[in-house]
């Protein structure tokens, strides 16, 4: 999946409104998808670095724990009810948000829009 | 040249509530049977703009929408700067009845969405003679929070931005982009602490639980509408509620979310027209 996250980083770089919205974001997002883990290191609204996990030594701000089928359903251009939002995935029991959720909520539109970028990059 | 005004007319009136006088912004449009419209938490009458400008609906109904105190163009009460805004069932019911009476409405239909739908059901229970029928949209007896309502009133973060980003979870992906973002704008504009104060009522007041059976739909019919993409009041929540009210009916709207009249007005229109016709059936 690393290629998908790299595609997200590139797509983010091409979206000035998201870069402006996330200009104060310095979070590290852990994405755990079944056995795979990736750390997306946000600096000033850009994904500065992507590192592969698992790693106990990498500090992270908040994490999204989910499964690949749920992400694929979430990334469809017209998702089914519940799969249309990360909180919907959580409500369906297909995802968990861990760590400092308030850090995520402070910049919630930015983080949700970034996580949804594969709807465009994968289609 | 005559300006191409929309048919919505906005006025102000001060109503007396148990909590004191409240200066209320009221909008009206149309001619026909009176329908009083209630907006959701953290929003205002703009959510009803498409219904109120719909030519066909305006021929059959006269719509009235108002901003609750603290919302939209209705001011908070004097002394607000030293108060914590927390909406209660009692104040909400009192305000709706006070506005309806101040407008001189005679047994109008009451249509409300989300917390407006909840209070419509509560009014159906407590004041069955006041309204001729109820359309309760995205409405249930109780919804516990799946978020922390205190997120939306913090001095170190933008409550409006966070509130809008949270409620975007409830908007259908079928909603047109322009309407999605117009819907979210009003949440971003909500006054500090207002969305939290509304959610306090919506997620903590469980006074309807176990009492839905007391509602008499023979006195005033009830139709519940719910969007399939509503994560807050799901179709299961709305249908559970409708089943517990003897005589109530419900419809699931497959391509809609929690703000159907605002997020996707074209898709919502036939469901709302049907709901109004159903609850108007007694004349």
Explain this structure to me?
The complex is a heterodimer of chains A (123) and B (283). With 123 residues, chain A is α+β, with helices and mostly antiparallel strands. Chain A is built from seven helices and five strands; from the N terminus they run ααββββααβααα. Chain A is globular, with a radius of gyration of 13 Å. The two termini of chain A are 16 Å apart. With 283 residues, chain B is of the alpha/beta class. Chain B is built from ten helices and eight strands. Chain B is globular. The relative contact order of chain B is 0.16. At the A-B interface, helix 4, helix 5 and helix 6 of A face helix 5 of B.
Number of DSSP E strands of chain B: 8
Q: Which of globular, elongated, flat, extended, rod-shaped describes the shape of chain A?
A: globular
Give the H and E element order of chain A: HHEEEEHHEHHH
Uncertain spans of chain B: none
Please summarize the sheet with the most strands of chain B.
8 strands, mixed
Percent strand of chain B equals: 15-25%
Poorly predicted tracts of residues of chain A: none
Task: Please bin the fraction of helical residues of chain B.
Answer: 25-40%
Biggest sheet of chain A, strands in spatial order?
3-2-1-4-5
User: What does the average pLDDT of chain A come to?
Assistant: 96
Order of helices and strands of chain B: EEEHHEHEHEHHHEHEHH
């Amino acid at each position: 999946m690393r290629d998908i996250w790299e595609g997200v980083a590139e797509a983010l770089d091409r979206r000035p409104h998201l870069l402006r919205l996330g200009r104060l974001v310095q979070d590290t997002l852990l994405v755990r998808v079944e056995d795979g883990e990736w750390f997306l290191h946000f600096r000033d609204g850009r994904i500065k670095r992507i590192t592969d996990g698992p790693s106990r030594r990498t500090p992270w701000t908040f994490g999204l724990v989910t499964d690949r089928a749920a992400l694929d359903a979430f990334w469809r251009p017209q998702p089914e009810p519940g799969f249309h939002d990360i909180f919907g995935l959580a409500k369906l029991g297909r995802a968990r948000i861990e760590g400092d959720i308030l850090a995520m909520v402070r910049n919630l539109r930015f983080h949700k829009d970034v996580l949804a970028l594969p709807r465009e990059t994968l289609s | 040249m005559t300006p191409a005004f929309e048919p919505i007319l906005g006025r102000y009136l001060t109503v007396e509530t148990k909590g004191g006088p409240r200066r209320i912004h009221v909008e009206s449009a149309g001619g026909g049977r009176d329908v009083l419209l209630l907006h959701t938490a953290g929003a205002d009458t703009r959510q009803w703009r498409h219904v109120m400008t719909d030519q066909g609906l305006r021929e059959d109904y006269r719509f009235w929408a108002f901003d609750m105190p603290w919302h939209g163009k209705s001011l908070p009460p004097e002394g607000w700067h030293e108060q914590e805004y927390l909406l209660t069932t009692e104040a909400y019911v009192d305000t709706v009845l006070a506005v309806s009476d101040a407008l001189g409405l005679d047994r109008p239909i009451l249509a409300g969405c989300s917390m407006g739908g909840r209070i419509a059901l509560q009014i159906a229970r407590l004041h069955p003679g006041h309204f001729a029928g109820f359309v309760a949209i995205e409405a249930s007896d109780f919804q516990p929070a799946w978020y922390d309502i205190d997120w939306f009133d913090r001095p170190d973060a933008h409550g409006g931005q966070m509130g809008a980003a949270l409620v975007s979870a409830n908007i259908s992906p079928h909603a047109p982009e322009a309407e999605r973002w117009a819907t979210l704008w009003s949440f971003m504009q909500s006054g500090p602490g207002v969305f939290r104060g509304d959610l306090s009522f919506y997620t903590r007041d469980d006074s309807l639980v176990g009492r839905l059976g007391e509602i008499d739909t023979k006195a005033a019919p009830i139709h519940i509408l719910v969007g399939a993409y509503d994560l807050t009041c799901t179709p299961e929540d709305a249908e559970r509620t409708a089943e517990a009210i003897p005589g109530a009916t419900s419809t699931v709207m497959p391509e809609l979310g929690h703000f159907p009249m605002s997020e996707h007005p074209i898709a919502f229109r036939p469901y709302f027209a049907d709901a109004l016709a159903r609850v108007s059936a007694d004349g």
